Every structure is written in structure tokens, then in C-alpha cells.
Amino acid sequence: MTAPNEEASIGMLQSLQETATMRLSARNQIQGRIVEVRPGATTTHVKIEIADGVVLTASITNEASEELGLKIGDTATAVIKASDVMVGV
């Protein structure tokens, strides 16, 4: 478990989707505000603030990031499929 204001990363590929226009089978959905979008060689790290001082970091493909048009300040929903979760501290 992390201390308050300490960051934990949850890695997933292509797991950020806008849920307003689709229905999903994944039950673990967390809404927040994008605070950072950092592209890398093959994946983009997206930080979503889900509560004051609580930030979730998702790793998605660069292609998915471009298709979604992610921008700082946007509202996003992290969709976490239980079988695809990796936690690092």
C-alpha cells in the first residue's frame, strides 16, 4: 500500500475509453481528470487524477492515445480489466 500522496502505477494497454457512447463489460471504471500525457517510444503514460492527490497512471499504446486525442484537463475514464492489472510501488 502506498502512503498518502505517493504514486502507484497501474499498467494497462488501450484501457482508456470514453464511456458515454459505448457499453463495456469491465466493471472497474474510475473517472477523473487528465493531468499529464507523456508519449514514449511505443507507449504513452497518462496520469489521471481520480481524487485530490490521488493519481492513477495508465500505459496505453501511442496509437490509442492519438486516436483518443487525450489532452490535459480532459475528463477520462480508466477502464481496468481485472485480468490486466499490474501494480508497482
Automatic annotation (TrEMBL):
Record-annotated Mop domain positions: 23-89
Keywords: Molybdenum
Alphabetized InterPro entries for the sequence: Mo/tungstate-bd_C_term_dom, Mop_domain, Transp-assoc_OB_typ1
Source lineage: Bacteria, Pseudomonadati, Pseudomonadota, Alphaproteobacteria, Acetobacterales
Keyword Coiled coil: no
Name this protein carries in UniProt: Molybdenum-pterin binding protein mopB
Organism the protein comes from: Granulibacter bethesdensis (strain ATCC BAA-1260 / CGDNIH1)
GO terms for biological process, alphabetical: molybdate ion transport
Superkingdom, natural source: Bacteria
